[in-house]
Every structure is written in C-alpha cells, then in structure tokens.
Amino acid sequence: MTLRQARWLMLVVPASLYLVSWFHRVAPAVVAADLMRAFSIGASALGNLAAIYPYVFAAMALVAGSLADTLGPRWTIALGGATMGAGAALFGAAPTFDVAFAGRLLVGLGASVLLIAWLSLASAWFRPDEFATVSGWTQAVGNAGALVAASPLALLVEAVGWRHTFVLIGALTLLLAAAAAGFIRDRPEALGLPPVNPAESARARLTLAEVLRGVPGVVTNRRTWPPILAAGGVYTTLITFLGLWGVPYLTQVYDLGRVEAATIVSMLAVGMGVGSPLVGWLSDRWLGRRRLPMVGFAAIYALCWVPLALGDLRLPAALLAPFFLLMGLASSGLILLWSCVREVNDPQCVGIAVGFCNVPIFLGFALLQWLTGAILDARWTGLVAAGVRLYPPAAYQAAFVVCLALSAGAFAAALMVTETRCRNVWQSVAR
C-alpha cells in the first residue's frame, strides 16, 4: 500500500463514523413530532433530550483528548463507534422516555471521541499546512451526515417508523466500528511507510499523567479562548436550528410538510459542507491566514440571523432555500477553530488542545437547546394538533433573538483571534 492510498483510508474509515455522529446530532429536528407524541413531552423536555448529546461532549472533551493521546486514535474511534451504535439501537427500542434518554446518552458518549481522535490521526498522516484543509473535509463529511438526517431520514421514518430507523442505524454503526478497528493505524510507520511528520512520529505516546499535566497550559492560555468563543457562537446557534427547531419552525410558521421542511433546512448542511473545505483551502493555501477568513465568515453568519429574529423581515418561502445555503456557507468559518487553537498551544498536547475546544462549545450548545425550548414553552398559547404543541411565530422569534446575540458575539471574538500565519507559534508567544 502506498502512502497516498493509506492516507485516503485514514480519512474514509473515520469519516463513515463521523458522518453517523452528525446524523445523530441533527436527527431530533426531523423526528421531533414523533418523539413528542411517543413520550407525551413538550419543547422543554425535547430540548433536554437533544441537549444530552452536547452535555456529554462537554463532559468528555478532555477525556476524549486524553484517549487520543494515550490509547491512540485507532482504538478510540473503534470503541466510540461501538458505543454510539449500541446507544442508537437502544434509543429506537426505548419503551419509555427515560430509556430513550439513556440511549441518547450512549450515542453522545460514543460520538464525543470521534472528531478529536480523527484530528489527532490527521496530525500524524498530514502535513501542518494541510491540517486546516483536512479539518474542512471533516466538516464536509459531518454535514453529509446532516443531509442524511434531513430528507432521507424523513422519507425513511415515513416508510418504516422512527423506531425501526434508529435500530437499523445502530446496527450499521456497529459494523463501521469493526471496520475502524481493522483498518485504521495511528501512524504511517505502523504500515511500514515513511513518517509524514517526523516530529509527530518521534513523539512518544504520552501517559495519562503527562497528558493531564498539559491541561492547565491550554486552559490558561489567553490565545486559546477567542477562536473557541468565535466558533462556539456560530456552532451552537447553527446546530440548535439545524438539529432541533428548524423543521418545526418551517412546518408551523410556513405550513410546510415535514419532508419539504427538512429539505429546505438541509441547505444549511449543504452550505457548510461546501464551504468547510473551501475555507480550509483558502486559509492554508491562498491567504496563509487564520483570522481574516474567520472574521469575514462570522460577520456574514451573524447578519443571517436578522430576518429570523425580527418578524418584520421574515423571508418569503421562495427565498428560504438559497438563504439557508448562504447561512451554511457563512458558518463554515468555524472550521478554523482547531487550527487556531492547535497553533497557539504546545504541539505535544494535540489531543488535549483540540479536545478542550469541545468543553465550552458543547456546554453552550446544550444550554442553548434547553433555553430555546424553555422560551418556546413560555410563549406557547395552548394550541395542540395530533398531540404536538404548536408555537406561534413570535415564540420562535424570541428564541432566535438569543441566537442573533450569540452570533454577534462570535464576530466580536473572531476579531481577537491570534494570527498564526498557518504555523505553530506556541514557543514564541509563550516567552
């Protein structure tokens, strides 16, 4: 096997599981009405069910980074996939809301380690000036998962029901986890190939104690925080809409069918899927900069929330698809997060530096899903149809005002990102 062939294998196998993890991230939007009906719950309870996924991500972030640095990417990805598959099957078979909650917990637990391990794998198989591009492709893959969780999921649920759908996804995920264990290798040398990054390959696998000693340096580094806050403001609001309230919003405010609404909302994923590798390429190869593209994309993204939050500017239905495509493209600037954080921290602690990003971002994501659900319930007028609560346009606008404020904060944080010129500056800024 050549190095080129092996590198593709190291992308494709983790990609399959990461795609499934994004599917689970946004699937609640499509089956929201089914879950409300099956378990007799409202928006707040649904928000809590969806939020357990990011809560687990926040709790597991440093653990995931530690696993990537100690156990290694191969087994971290395989075990994460197996846990995610078991959780999906349990979620589909859940007889009660508590069991569904436990299934969702397992899905989040398994999914939480995948991206960090994949990026750690990429640091051994790809050059530093390719890292943002690879990061962009990870998000393109993730958004392919979001697309699968849109119209295809809606059609499959219509055909076989939401329960059978999730059991089937769980079984497929277990097969992919077995493939990860069989094909992934942590470094090129494991396949008898020359190292891509000699410094990375020369680095001995760290013990857990050594990894944990690197945590304070990442957390107290003031240059770590601006890219995290910038990406967090974009990501939390995007996934709250894409993964939870987008489909209910379009079905209840625009009176669209579930499949049509899911198709329109999926334009967010299309936009981000196209934009993410583009942003990575622009940053790595054309601009040679990190802050400039992050600021520009964050500004456009913040503006996209204005017509959603202000009722007087509500978009006509004919413009929804291109609007969400633009919004998704604008959100793709967040993929520079991992490059920005990686390049201002000790290169010996890649897993911890990348993993720490998940703590505040996914904690904010979870809180925002709960908060928006609480706002909707607070403004509910009592209307119910087929066991599902109907929320007025003003309720959605109130929830989206919060998203507008967070996206504006993301733009402000992007202005404070340290410009690294696509190289690690940890030693120079640490002096």
Please summarize what this structure is:
By secondary structure, this protein is an all-alpha fold. Helix content is 76%, strand content 1%. The protein contains 22 helices and 2 strands.
Can you put this structure into words, describing what you see?
The chain is mostly helical and 431 residues long. The protein has 22 helices and two strands. The chain has helices at 3-30, 32-39, 43-70, 73-93, 97-111, 114-125, 131-148, 151-160, 162-183, 198-202, 208-213, 215-219, 225-253, 258-287, 291-304, 306-309, 320-331, 337-342, 350-356, 358-378, 393-414, 426-430; strands at 384-385, 388-389. The chain has a two-stranded antiparallel sheet. Strand 1 (384-385) and strand 2 form a beta hairpin. It is globular and about 65 Å long. It starts with a helix and ends with a helix.
